[in-house]
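Fold it.
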Amino acid sequence: MRIVNPEYIRRIDEFANRCPYFGLLSMRILEVGIGYSVIGIEVAQKHLQPFGKVHGGVFASILDAAAFWSVYYDLEEADGLTTVDLKLNYLAPASAGMLIAKGRRIKTGKTLGYAEVEVANGEGKVLAHGTSTVIVLPGKAPVLDPPLPPKFLS
């Protein structure tokens, strides 16, 4: 089994957490590793629809991010990925507090990856569940300045 370089994880987390879309939603990577991810959003007024509940698009976004990052560390160093399918079931509303999405990679193949995500509130109540299919993009790894360290230690 390969071991992901902790410095690579730190740099990619910083990069992703500065992403404009993550900033728009105040979304943050809380934890990642091979086959899993944890993404968080502290609910604010900007996340609410007119009836005072978190907008469904916020749930879709955090689910998409958790699925993406749960597959990412399976990829070769030079590869990237993007979402091709997202299925989401809303189970309960939220209007305040923390949203925590826990992603788990189900399978990563040569061209596609598949992940499952649960979104819960800070007390652990599951609010949404979904799955996502991502496509591997050979040669499309993020390019940062300064360059990233090696992705894997072994």
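The radius of gyration is 15 Å.
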